[in-house]
Write a structure and sequence with these properties.
CATH topology of the largest domain: Rossmann fold
Number of strands: 14
CATH architecture of the largest domain: 3-Layer(aba) Sandwich
Helix content: 40-55%
Radius of gyration: 36 Å
Structural class: alpha/beta
CATH superfamily of the largest domain: Resolvase, N-terminal catalytic domain
Oligomer: single chain
Largest sheet: 4 strands, parallel
CATH class of the largest domain: Alpha Beta
Length: 523
């Protein structure tokens, strides 16, 4: 070097795997100190790093940059032994060299000295910096290949998830085994299945000496490893695969998917705006319209002189309608109970469903192919962000956020694929349950809680109900319920072929006539 160095900072760096291979921070630092003594260089700052050189997001190096900025012009160089101690990334290195130049500092590898004022030496610098980067890339390829091979063999080669421990089997192959916290993990899944909230589960576990954050519990509950399943990501033309692992599962596969459905339903409820408060005495609030002004009826309680509560549905717009809630609730329950699901209707309904099922099979095949493609895409994204974090292209926080997002997407897709493989037997079982429910709609409605009552009402009456003090009617009726009413109508006719006047289904749906149904209202 032609330029005389007066003051300098020195840097020694190794990564964890390099330490295992025999590299030493002490040896590097000693060599740099002796170099400075021989050349009369004053050391103004020295630091050690036990960190990978894939990028410059290294804590000790960040502190050095802060020192260099605050002491601009007070020292000349940053010394290290070889260029791979400085960095293993060509582009990042060139950018950092320019940044240090702005602080008046030039980086120098004392064992690979280069005068960067000579243009030809820049080519040599590129070689020094590129060779370690190539070595990193080659090592990364080998590691990913080894990880994929282990996953395909049903092994978990990464750090063991919470509740497991990394171990070796009789053939010295990596495997995970249940650890001391395995029972706590099992209790988390069991708690969700019993309907406990995650907050209650965390509080209960804390009393038993096991602490877990809200985010870690969410990640844990979506991790299929606990069900004995291992996901092998997409690689080239090989699609993603979900295989059985060799490790002991902490929860059955069936229970794991039940938990996924519970969590998915909870998210939907959380994101759904709750515009109508729910009281057991007012299940129709939000489902009734005023017969005078066609505006929604609300509901509230009034206290009598003796302090007891009486509930009413009333209109806050025209203020012309006010009905006792128990009478309206009873009228609607009778209306639902009058829907007669006889044998003719059942036979017709089964025939329609059978025809629908036959036309849906090609769509199911397409859906399966679509789900496979989506799964491959999501697995590809998981691999990419894994590479990004390995290469230092994203922060740990970004990686965790993206991993959670794509893992949730993957679990939903896997759940859909699992649901789609149940076969005709499962479908027949569900259809049988549906038919049983249709035959006892009134019983289901009466016994349901307020939320389920609203769901049953919404499935029967897609539109709002209008109650005029005597009868309920609607401008829109579910097609299946309309089929039931029309097909079973003969059972409600008298000898003259007319419906009985006192039938609770009489006039349920307004005839549209010339004007739209919503216009046919009493004045």
């Amino acid at each position: 070097m032609n330029r005389t160095i007066k003051k300098a900072a020195i840097m020694a760096r190794v990564s964890s795997d390099e330490q295992a291979a025999g590299y030493s921070l002490g040896v590097q630092e000693e060599a740099l100190i002796k170099y400075c003594e021989r050349n009369g260089i004053e050391i103004v700052y020295k630091f050690r790093e036990d960190y990978s050189a894939k990028n410059f997001r290294r804590p000790a190096f960040t502190e050095f940059l802060k020192f260099a900025k605050e002491n601009k012009g007070k020292f000349d160089h940053l010394l290290f032994t070889t260029w791979d101690r400085f960095s293993r990334n060509l582009l990042d290195s060139l950018e950092m060299i320019q940044r240090l130049k702005g602080y008046g500092v030039s980086p120098i590898a004392v064992e690979q000295p280069l005068d960067l004022t000579i243009p030809e030496n820049k080519a040599m610098l590129s070689i020094y910096l590129t060779l370690p980067e190539i070595d990193n890339d080659r090592r990364s390829i080998k590691i990913r290949g080894g990880v994929r091979a282990a996953l395909l063999a049903g092994r978990w080669p990464r750090q063991a998830p919470m509740g497991y421990l990394n171990a070796r089997d009789e053939n010295n192959k990596p495997i995970i085994i249940p650890g001391k916290d395995a029972d706590h993990i099992r209790s988390i899944f069991q708690g969700i299945l019993k309907g406990d909230s995650q907050a209650d589960i965390r509080e209960r576990l804390k009393k038993h000496g096991f602490s877990i954050s809200r985010s870690n519990m969410s990640l844990l509950l979506h991790n299929s490893v606990y069900a004995g399943l291992i996901t092998v990501p997409t690689e080239g033309n090989d699609p993603a695969k979900l295989i059985n692992g060799l490790h002991e599962r902490l929860v059955t596969e069936a229970d794991f998917y039940k938990v996924q459905r519970i969590l998915s339903a909870a998210v939907k409820r959380k994101n759904k705006p709750n515009t109508v408060s729910s009281k057991e005495e007012l299940p129709l609030r939000g489902s009734l319209l005023c017969s005078k002004c066609n505006q929604p009826l609300t509901g509230s309680a009034s206290k009598s002189r003796n302090g007891s509560k009486h509930f009413y549905y009333h209109c806050n717009y025209c203020r012309k309608e006010r009905y006792r809630a128990d009478l309206v609730n009873e009228k609607v329950a009778k209306t639902i109970g009058a829907i007669n699901f006889n044998q003719d209707v059942e036979n017709l309904y089964k025939a329609i469903l059978k025809e629908k099922q036959s036309t849906m099979k090609p769509k199911a095949t397409e859906s399966r192919e679509s789900l496979n493609k989506k799964l491959s895409d999501v697995e590809g994204r998981l691999v990419k962000i894994q590479n990004f974090i390995v290469d230092g292209a994203i922060t740990v926080e970004d990686y965790k956020s993206m991993r959670e997002r794509y893992t949730n997407e993957r679990d939903e897709i896997v759940q859909k694929m699992s649901d789609g493989t149940q076969g005709d037997a499962q479908l027949k079982k569900k259809l049988s349950l549906c038919l049983t429910s249709l035959k006892s709609l009134d019983r289901l409605y009466v016994q349901a809680n307020v939320h389920d009552k609203k769901r049953i009402l919404g499935s029967i009456f897609p539109g709002k109900l209008i109650f005029d003090g005597e009868k309920c009617r609607t401008g829109e009726l579910n097609e299946v319920i309309a089929l039931i009413i029309n097909t079973g109508a003969d059972s409600r006719k008298n000898k003259t072929g007319q419906h009985h006047e006192n039938s609770v289904l009489s006039g349920l749906v307004e005839p549209a006539g010339v004007e739209p149904a919503s216009k046919h209202m009493p004045n």
